[in-house]
Amino acid sequence: MSWRVTVRTGPKVQKLRADTLDEALELLETETRVAANTTRRGTIDVKVRRFEPEDQVATRVELRGPGARAGFDVRGDGSVQAWTGRVRRRLVEPEDGETPYDALRRQMTSVEP
Q1: Contact call for residues 83 and 70 (beta carbons, < 8 A)
Q2: I need a labelling partner for 54 at 20 to 30 A (CA). Which of 10, 27, 72, 113 fits?
Q3: 24: helix, coil or strand?
């Protein structure tokens, strides 16, 4: 089985591969942490609407594999949200004391065949 990690920042797309789910989750977390530490955006004002940094997805790091699609959205303010889903993204809410990375790992380990 092969897992693919895709990192999208603006027009830049980087595609990576991992052999196991654990390797893919490590790669996903590493790429997301790098993006969260380096990504900051200002407010975008387009006359009829303002987009604050927390409303903007600056980087999307996506994991695809056998029967699963999940990832992280890095917001313009550097915050991270975990999600799952193919057509419709559903946020993965961290439980008490969990980081978004822990929450997605918990969610994905129940998917591995």
Answers
A1: yes
A2: 27
A3: helix
- Report the candidate in 30, 33, 51 with the shortest Cα–Cα distance to residue 42: 51
The residues spanned by each domain of the chain are 3-109
Separation between Cα atoms, residue 59 and residue 7, nearest integer Å: 7
Three-state DSSP state, 39: coil
**Cα distance between residue 59 and residue 62, in whole Å:** 10
Its sign, for the CA torsion 104, 110, 111, 113, is positive
Query: Which alpha helices (DSSP H) does the chain contain, by range?
Result: 21-38, 100-109
Please give the DSSP secondary-structure letter assigned to residue 87: S
Q: What is the pLDDT of residues 28-79, one digit of tens each?
A: 999 999 998 887 777 877 888 887 778 888 899 999 998 889 999 999 888 9
